[in-house]
Design brief:
The protein has 69 residues and is an alpha+beta fold. 26% of the residues lie in helices and 29% in strands. It has a three-stranded antiparallel sheet. Strand 2 (53-59) and strand 3 form a beta hairpin. The chain starts with a strand and ends with a strand.
Length: 69
């Protein structure tokens, strides 16, 4: 069996080019110099190495993070 965890963050406007590359190491766009997205990059790499998946998308005016284990 596999399972998924979904996290919704309301009222967060992240540009689509940033969302598309947020989980890809060395292929990303910065929101601002103070925005720290490296935790997402590291989590994505760890999950992929163990057969899982982490995805980020827009959802109802916010952001949805889905982790598939």
């Amino acid at each position: 069996g596999r399972f998924a965890i979904s996290i919704y963050i309301d009222d967060l406007d992240v540009p689509q080019p940033v969302l598309e590359t947020m989980c890809q190491p060395w292929n990303h766009n910065m929101l601002t110099q103070s925005f720290d997205y490296w935790g997402m990059v590291i989590a994505s790499v760890i999950m992929e190495k163990h057969g899982g998946n982490l995805s980020i998308e827009r959802s109802n005016g916010g952001m949805k993070i889905t982790m598939l284990f």
